[in-house]
Specification:
two-stranded antiparallel ribbon; seven-stranded parallel β-sheet; alpha/beta; about 325 residues; 13 helices; about 10% strand
């Protein structure tokens, strides 16, 4: 093709750009129409953008926080951060509902045929499952990663969350038919010898995506509400060892390192070491009261995807700067 004059060059750039961006022709259709090679059309489009003939802008919808997400991903080495719009002073229930909807959207976007999904328990993950629309999958399995905690009939019970999630995805289900915490080591040994419990544990290395809640060791937390999960003495014990948070009753310190305690020996579920072997671990958490716990989980690389609210997202960046 002979060289074009500056004015002819600009006219061609403009024409190719209009055909592509305004009339939505493919690059191949433009090439055939103008008797150009497809690679030439691609170069012209790139040149049109460089010369300012085409100006592309991304308009974020209301409630979008791409800058916060980018900063979180860069600061903590995350695969992805999703920040949702939750107003200051909103009720905990509304915050959980919003985070749950974001978690459900992420799950449906990410799940692929053959995935093995691990899930813990808690109010935020319950909200995620409540927000999930039925979605037919193939060869997907849901694995409960901690035994039952609290009243078996409660929605936040790990068994109930796992069962409902599997039903919504049309997935196979593997449960841990045991309590999440037991009274003594002898009871734990007996339960771990059960073939169904062993079957669930054997699937832990196969989990491709895990969804976890992040707890805070304080008297008002869900694990302390009715006294059926942890005792005050057990809480005091992990606090004395520097606990700032937990994932599935596996407590960790401000650096995100696992805390070895007497309580840890009574938990029936995935360890933090096993969690660290999973390719994608999605933490769903919000509220300023969880700032230290989530920051520690990020520092310890216990999660590599974070779904949170804008208030907590900003606070996490402040903590990472020592403020």
């Amino acid at each position: 093709m002979p060289a074009l004059s500056p004015s002819g060059d600009i006219r061609l750039l403009s024409k190719v750009s209009k055909l592509y961006y305004e009339r939505h022709l493919t690059q191949q259709q433009i090439a055939e129409r103008l008797h150009l090679s497809r690679s030439k059309v691609s170069r012209l489009l790139q040149q049109a953008e460089l010369q300012g003939i085409v100006q592309i802008s991304v308009v974020m919808p209301s409630g979008g926080y791409s800058q916060l997400e980018n900063e979180l991903e860069a600061r903590f080495g995350l695969k992805e951060a999703i920040v949702v719009d939750v107003e200051d002073g909103v009720s905990p229930e509304m915050r959980m509902t919003t985070l749950g909807a974001a978690g459900a959207g992420y799950l449906q976007r990410m799940v692929e045929d053959g995935d093995v999904l691990g899930i813990t328990w808690g109010t935020t993950l319950n909200a995620m499952v409540n927000a999930l629309h039925p979605y037919k999958t193939r060869r997907v399995r849901v694995v409960q990663t901690i035994g039952g905690l609290g009243a078996p009939e409660a929605e936040i019970h790990a068994t109930d969350i796992s069962s409902r999630l599997a039903h919504l995805l049309g997935a196979k289900l593997t449960l841990i038919p045991a309590p999440g915490i037991v009274a003594d080591q002898r009871t734990k040994s007996a339960l771990l010898s059960d073939s169904h419990v062993q079957s669930a544990f054997s699937l832990f290395p196969s989990i491709t995506i895990a969804f976890v809640g992040i707890g805070v060791p304080e008297p008002t937390s869900v694990v302390m509400r009715d006294g059926s999960i942890m005792t005050q003495a057990q809480l005091d014990g992990v606090l004395a060892l520097g606990a700032v948070g937990d994932i599935g009753l596996r407590f960790f310190d401000a650096e995100g390192c696992a805390i070895r305690s007497a309580l840890d020996e009574l938990v029936i579920g995935m360890t933090l070491e096993q969690l660290g072997q999973i390719e994608r671990v999605v933490g769903v958490a919000g509220g300023q009261n969880k700032a230290r716990a989530v920051h520690a989980a990020l520092r310890g690389r216990l999660i590599n995807v974070l779904i949170t609210d804008r208030v907590l997202a900003s606070r996490l960046l402040e903590l990472s700067e020592g403020r």
